[in-house]
Amino acid sequence: MVVERTDTARGRIAARAGGSATLAVLRDPRRLRTEVFAGMVVALALVPETISFSILAGVGPQIGLVTSFLFAMTIAIVGGRPAMISAAAGSVALVLAPLVREHGVQYLIAAVLLGGVLQLLLSLAGVAKLMRFVPPSVVTGFVNGLAILIFAAQVPHLAGVPWLVYPLTAVGLVIMVVLPRLTRAIPAPLVATTLL
């Protein structure tokens, strides 16, 4: 059996055995556990996440549910990276919300299709290789800025809700921060989603 190893940007090692990533995962208990937990997190978190991002983007929840099902199935069929979690992107919802508000849903479809075509063209052109010139601090700053924008967009939805929402939100945040310091055997997002 030939095993090919490649280092990713985060130092992870992806192994492909016998030409089939699925068989490689089934043969390695650690990778199987990682993939199963990643799948459970996606399965439990995908529905509320896509509904909230749909509302944030200004479209109906049914659009988010249908598209989340389609892209999850597509990624499951065409493959991905080990432990890759595929879900709705809050950054896309933040960008598309003003577009839908000003121009309507028909522009949403065109913008998403154009974005996909641009990603494919940039990938074929090898632009991803240029990412090695971007310092890690810039990437971290971008992701943190995006997290702040997503959080700020969701804060108004915490006003005028039943009082029980506030302690549940606090418990969820505590689980997400404290549990990884105690154990990494079970992912904190899986525990928070299951309990809350």
Task: Give an account of the 3D structure.
The chain is mainly alpha-helical. The chain is 68% helix and 5% strand. The protein has eight helices and two strands, in the order E-E-H-H-H-H-H-H-H-H. It has a two-stranded antiparallel sheet with strand order 1-2. The longest helix has 29 residues, at 29-57.
DSSP strand content:
5-15%
Order of helices and strands: EEHHHHHHHH
Radius of gyration: 19 Å
Structural class: mainly alpha
**Strand neighbour order, sheet with most strands:** 1-2
Number of helices: 8
| Total beta strands | 2
Intertermini distance: 44 Å
Low-confidence stretches: 1-19
Largest sheet: 2 strands, antiparallel
Question: How helical, in percent, are the residues?
Answer: 55-70%
Mean pLDDT: 77
Shape: globular
What characteristics describe this protein?
196 residues, mainly alpha, two-stranded antiparallel ribbon, 8 helices, 68% helix, 5% strand
